[in-house]
Hints:
This protein is an alpha/beta fold. Helix content is about 50%, strand content about 15%. The chain contains 13 helices and eleven strands. It has helices spanning about 1-10, 20-30, 45-60, 75-85, 120-125, 130-135, 180-185, 200-205, 215-220, 245-250, 255-290, 300-320, 320-335, and strands at about 30-35, 65-70, 90, 140-150, 155, 170-175, 190-195, 210-215, 230, 240-245, 290-295. The strands form three sheets. The chain has a five-stranded mixed sheet with strand order 2-1-3-10-4. It has a four-stranded mixed sheet with strand order 8-5-9-11. It has a two-stranded parallel sheet with strand order 6-7. The longest helix has about 35 residues, at about 255-290. Mean pLDDT is about 95; it is low at about 1-30.
Amino acid sequence: EDTGGDTEEQTDTGEDAGDETEAAEESSGDAQTLRISIGVTDAHPEYEGAMKFKELVEEQTDDFEVEVYHSGQIAGDREAAEMLQQGTLEITIPSTSPMVNFVPEYGVFDLPFTIPNEEVADAVLDGPFGDKMLGMLEDQGMVGLAWWENGFRNLTNSSKPVSSVDDLEGLDLRTMENDIHLDAWNAMGANPTPMAFPELFSALQQGTIDGQENPYPTIDTSNFYEVQDYLSGTNHVYTPFIFLISKQIWDGFSEEQQTILREAAVEAGKFNRERNREVADESLEMLKEEMEFSEITDEELERFRDAVEPVIEDHKSSIGAEVVDEYLAEIEKHE
Ligand code: KDG
């Protein structure tokens, strides 16, 4: 409709009309909109990072206008990634876990109890191993620009305190759409179901599931504590966020534009990590007041590890034994 209406005006302008009009409008006209889809709310450090990205990009160029859509308004992680493939969405910053449905190697990050702390996570992700993993989605139509932080995941539920692996027996848990997570929770005795993040709050509220697992900032900012009474400090896995842009769209940008976007994604990621760590501490303090908190003793943690050990072995071949070994060696190097 818009372009139809413009046609007459264009002919009125005389000489400028014709083939060149469109090209001229694209380069000197309106900025291109880059929409970012995230699943978490606008109170989450991921949103703060996305707003930092917007600020960094828009202060350097008039070529882009960044819009951040939170709370799964556009889509959940997996669906958003599919939109990137089709070129119908520009950017998403998902957990790596649902990305195993596109590239199985991403499963390394889902192996429970492998990354011991944030410093090791940074070293692994910011080194050659992380660089290699970042490029792996290109064949799938997505370009990875930077690693951000989701963080260590912790269990919540509405039915009972969980301080040992035996307490998991029969608990209905939501997991991300990822086979390793499903198998791990099965091995620990729970009853897991995969579900997209935007559906999670109402599933917890309606009691169709008993529990879920996410980092403290998410349990806090998505208000899960309002519908979950018990929190367990399981820290069972560290999930990164990966900053992804549609390859179709990316390929249409100049080198200069690509550099601006890449640098802004990395810089905003540093800010996101820093904020995430501050918020994780604050959130845990707050959650301890709202929920019954169970610490997991080292002895019990050993039993969680033992339960999932066969899952790690099982998935080595589906992920790729070489990638798994490389990942574990990188962790050891930085521990
Ligand atoms: O914005 C990120 C969320 O969409 C999601 O990745 C959060 O870890 C998450 C989960 O449990 O789905």
